[in-house]
Write a structure and sequence with these properties.
Length: 177
């Protein structure tokens, strides 16, 4: 069953285990398809591998899954089609990969945001809201938190729709005009 078309860019924010991914998947599944899942996670340990497997089980075989741990901008450009809906899960894992690869975080984020207006078809981004807790005790964690906050602000500015999810409940923060 299809609903109204999604806007060009939707951002779904929330904390860990808030239901943001499930909510974003539901948004995409209201569209006719095909549905493209750009996965940014890497299975660095058994716990992360289990999380990835859980997401894959939930989606089943109805989605086209593509790995995009570093070149998210390129993966978006390659996947964007007028009849396809893309889900990127998630921006904060992508940001982690960028930091750990010692790439230029600001440049990579700017490239991503600059590419959004030129995409064909809607894209839904999932991202963690990490600015609601205490100030981290180490420099890398503070750098990540600050970069994630800046990336989320830029994505929210570029998006026509922004939804915050807490306890599985969506709160629309910005609705399409």
């Amino acid at each position: 069953m299809t609903s109204l078309p999604l806007p060009p860019v939707t951002l779904v924010l929330g904390g860990a285990r808030s239901g943001k991914s499930r909510y974003a998947e539901g948004l995409v599944e209201t569209q006719a398809g095909p549905w493209v899942y750009l996965a940014t996670a890497t299975a660095g340990d058994a716990e992360m591998a289990a999380r990835i497997a859980e997401h894959q089980r939930r989606r089943g075989g109805r989605w086209q899954t593509r790995e995009a741990p570093l070149d998210l901008t390129g993966a978006l450009a390659a996947a964007a089609k007028p009849d396809a809906t893309i889900l990127v899960d998630c921006l904060t894992l992508w940001l982690t990969n960028i930091l750990l690869a010692d790439l230029d975080v600001e440049n990579e984020c700017e490239k991503l945001i600059a590419a959004l207006p030129g995409l064909d078809g809607p894209v839904v981004f999932v991202s963690n809201e990490v600015g609601l807790g205490i100030v981290p005790e180490n420099a890398l964690a503070r750098r990540f938190r600050d970069a994630a906050g800046r990336l989320n602000q830029a994505a929210a500015t570029a998006a026509q729709s922004v939804v915050f999810v807490a306890a599985g409940l969506p709160l629309v923060m910005k609705a399409p005009a």
